[in-house]
Design brief:
The complex is a heterodimer of chains A (about 220) and B (about 525).
Chain A: H1 2-28, H2 44-69, H3 71-77, H4 81-111, H5 113-116, H6 121-143, H7 147-150, H8 155-163, H9 170-173, H10 177-192, E1 216-217
Chain B: H1 4-9, E1 13-22, H2 31-41, E2 53-57, H3 69-72, E3 76-79, E4 82-85, H4 90-95, H5 106-109, E5 113-115, H6 118-122, E6 134-136, H7 173-180, E7 188-192, H8 201-205, E8 211-214, E9 220-222, H9 232-236, E10 242-245, E11 250-253, H10 258-262, H11 268-271, E12 278-286, H12 290-294, H13 301-308, H14 315-323, H15 328-335, H16 338-345, E13 350-351, E14 362-365, E15 373-376, E16 379-382, H17 406-413, H18 418-439, H19 447-454, H20 459-470, H21 474-477, H22 485-488, H23 495-501
Parallel strand pairs in B: 1-14
Antiparallel strand pairs in B: 1-12, 2-7, 3-4, 5-6, 8-9, 10-11, 13-14, 15-16
Classes of the chains: A mainly alpha (about 220), B alpha+beta (about 525).
Chain lengths: ~220, ~525
């Protein structure tokens, strides 16, 4: 029963919340569809915290996603003792980097009064959930070694089953509770997406790369 | 939109609402700043912003040392024949998206504060009078005021502020000493708003594409709904005229009071100007020359920008303007534009820091700076006036002994080209000599003709300059038809849609709820 809720129901609820909530917020509250930067109020600690956090978490999250999308490639990659060791060491280092960054950001929000004044309750909720999630991940990688390998045979097929709309919680039910918590909390973050500053993920300004520098807007439509 | 005008004539003529500041007339009263503040930035998160501010020059300005692009990395720099953003390239922009590499912090401006007035009423009975302490408007905590708006106001000669003006670069030790010497100390005022540039680096630096230049009138705006708070515009603008609202998490800037312009009212800063130093009018310019002008060598920048401004009476210019949808009313206004006269016909008004290569479209008539005189042995001597005849006639030989060195003005207004500043001053001097000869009549024979020749001007032109400088009517200073936004919008478009969009941003209160 609980396993069904955790691994068959919650993922769909979370994704539905993210999509519907995300669209709803974009339509009703486009103004705040970004992260509220506080660099203007405090710049030095933000640099160390924000850069370490973002690059660290992007790399780790990227590895998670690649293993799901290109599972055969990933499987072949970790199918060698040496490569596996290198991957695990890099992964641990990068996740520690992101945790350190998050710690700097949290300390900054707590200790700089100016920054505290622009911090919302949802910012704290998100900060705590992110910290718990990263700590769970690091803990798991230390206690249950070679996660990059067994991930391909447990969570990856479970995620695939979710995509195929044929959830198979049996891939997850026998895993240790830390792994279960990490997986469920991952979907918890997806559910939090529209209600926190996480929305800035979809604001990533990639179109900047190919747009022209100058933008001129005419009210009158082209008359040709 | 492909400009229709370009296909016809090879030109791409657009209209630009432009302004001239006559610095000889600025008394530094800050009325413009207050008028602007009361209308636009009297809000939470915007307390520290001064879309219009007036600084003392020499001085460090607002934010402190904004002209120092080694520090702030604003504007463009030359790259071969073209230009590139001094801040960073496009891929670096994305790489640096998590921490802006050159963002001024609130301390570079000042932390806004108020006073704890409540305490005056609530303080328990005691031996001392209660006081209202300063508290930060950001954190609400008690604070010591260490900077504020106009913090170096009137501090000409100050070793802390005036001596650190970035425009002193290239001045000799003697010249610097002279500028700060107590009895010859010199300063003037520099009112600044957004320059509504033709090549705005704020627009170019914005990853989200929130900033844009309006095709119809050249006003540079920042969409509050598209802004995603990457803050690159703040670093990108070399004039530091986009500001970050720390409360709403959006950047904001001067909007040239476009809601007022729509109904034919002058901008608040313009309208409230006590010294009547401002002139507002339309310039027609050839946008197809943008890249060539922006990539010119430093010493050619001012002349190249003058060349970009088109003659509003030339038939091919008018044709191209019409094809681009510039209204007849705007074309007529451009032909009567006081800005065109000062900038192009008389060549008296210059862009501020042309070397930033944003092609700023607001212009300044450099100040003559007080009379070229000094106090010696307690008496006030007009430089070079001791011709033995007691004449107080200004002369050209005094130009290079001006209290503010030509070099300083050249750093401000001509990208270092001193000859351009000299030309301006020679013409301004010619006007003074002509008018003095007329009203006092103490000119020696041939002196006036000589002065007019040196100033490359004629008696008629000099008199026109004098008239528009010293006794213009409001209608002569402000030549702009109501922008009539409703007519600029195509009739096929649902009018109610644009009714909402014509005002200042969204009609909803910009608020963060998460």
């Amino acid at each position: 029963m609980w396993n069904t809720v955790l691994f068959s129901v919650i993922p769909y609820v979370a994704v539905a919340l993210a999509v519907v909530g995300g669209i709803w917020r974009y339509r009703t509250d486009r103004f705040s569809y970004s992260s509220q930067s506080s660099q203007f109020l405090e710049s030095r600690a933000l640099f160390w915290g924000s850069v370490s956090w973002h690059y660290g978490i992007l790399l780790i999250l990227g590895a998670h996603v690649i293993a799901v999308v290109l599972w055969t490639v990933w499987g072949a990659l970790v199918n060698d003792q040496g490569r596996l060791l290198v991957l695990e060491v890099i992964g641990l280092a990068v996740s520690l980097l992101s945790l350190a960054g998050l710690a700097v950001l949290a300390a900054r929000r707590l200790s700089v009064p100016r920054v505290r004044s622009v911090t919302s309750p949802m910012d704290w909720v998100l900060m705590v959930v992110l910290a718990v999630q990263v700590i769970l991940g690091i803990w798991m990688s230390l206690v249950y070694r070679w996660g990059s390998e067994w991930y391909v045979h447990t969570s990856v097929p479970w995620l695939h089953s979710l995509v195929k709309l044929n959830p198979k919680p049996e891939f997850m039910v026998n895993l240790p509770w830390i792994v279960k918590a990490h997986a469920v909390l991952g979907f918890g973050l997806i559910a939090l997406f529209p209600f926190t500053r996480l929305v800035h993920i979809v604001s990533a300004p990639v179109t900047y790369l190919w747009r022209s520098y100058q933008l001129v807007v005419w009210n009158r439509r082209a008359a040709q | 939109m492909t400009p229709a005008g370009k296909e016809m004539t090879g030109m791409d003529i657009r209209a630009q609402v432009s302004m001239v500041f006559h610095l000889d007339k600025c008394i530094g009263c800050h009325t413009c700043s207050i008028a602007c503040k009361n209308i636009w930035t009297d809000r939470k998160g915007a307390e520290y912003m001064w879309w219009n501010n007036v600084e003392t020059k020499p001085g460090t300005g607002f934010p402190t040392k904004w002209e120092d692009q080694e520090k702030y990395r604003g504007g463009w720099e030359r790259d071969g024949d073209g230009v590139k953003l001094r801040l960073q390239g496009k891929t670096s922009t994305l790489g640096n998206i998590f921490a802006n590499p050159a963002l001024p912090t609130v301390d570079d401006y000042y932390e806004p504060w108020t006073y704890d007035y409540e305490h005056l009423f609530d303080a328990p009975e005691g031996d001392d009078q209660p006081t209202a302490r300063t508290v930060s408007m950001i954190s609400g905590q008690p604070m010591d005021v260490e900077a504020g708006p106009n913090w170096d106001d009137d501090l000409g000669g100050s070793p802390v502020y005036a001596a650190n003006d970035p425009n002193l670069e290239g001045l000799t030790e003697d010249e610097r000493a002279q500028m700060h010497e107590l009895e010859r100390m010199v300063f003037f005022y520099l009112p600044r708003i957004c320059n509504h540039c033709v090549n705005p680096s704020c627009v170019a630096a914005c990853p989200a594409g929130a900033l844009y230049k309006r095709g119809e009138d050249g006003i540079v705006l920042l969409s509050q709904d598209k802004c995603r708070a990457w803050r690159m515009c703040i670093s990108g603008c070399p004039y530091k005229k986009t500001y970050y609202n720390w409360s709403s998490g959006k950047s904001e800037k001067c909007i040239l009071c476009f809601p007022r312009l729509e109904s034919g009212h002058a901008p608040a800063c313009f309208h409230s100007c006590v010294g009547r130093i401002r002139y507002l009018g339309v310039l027609l310019y050839d946008a197809s020359q943008l890249e060539r002008v922006a990539g010119s060598a430093d010493e050619d920048l001012v002349e190249a920008q003058r060349a970009m401004i088109a003659d509003p009476n030339a038939p091919e210019v008018i044709a191209s303007a019409r094809a681009n949808g510039v209204s007849e009313a705007l074309i007529t206004a451009a032909q009567r534009s006081p800005v065109y006269k000062f900038v192009k016909e008389w060549k008296l008004a210059l862009p501020l820091h042309a070397e930033f290569r944003t092609l700023p479209m607001l212009f300044y008539v450099p100040p003559m700076l007080p009379v070229m005189a000094k106090v010696e042995n307690g008496t006030y001597d007009v430089e070079d006036a001791g011709n033995g005849d007691g004449s107080a006639m200004p002369t050209f030989t005094g130009l290079d002994q001006a209290r503010a060195p030509i070099r300083f003005m050249a750093n401000l207004f001509s990208a270092g080209n001193e000859e351009i500043i000299r030309e301006v001053y020679r013409k301004l001097l010619a006007v003074r000599i002509l008018m003095r000869a007329k009203s006092v009549g103490d000119a020696a024979d041939g002196e006036v003709a000589e002065a007019l020749a040196a100033g490359a001007t004629t008696a008629d032109e000099a008199e026109a300059i004098f008239r528009l400088t010293s006794m213009p009517t409001f209608q002569e200073r402000f030549v702009l038809p109501p922008l009539a936004r409703e007519q600029q919008i195509e009739a096929t478009v649902n009018p109610f849609q644009h009714k909402q969009e014509a005002g200042f941003g969204s009609r909803k209160q910009g608020e963060r709820r998460w």
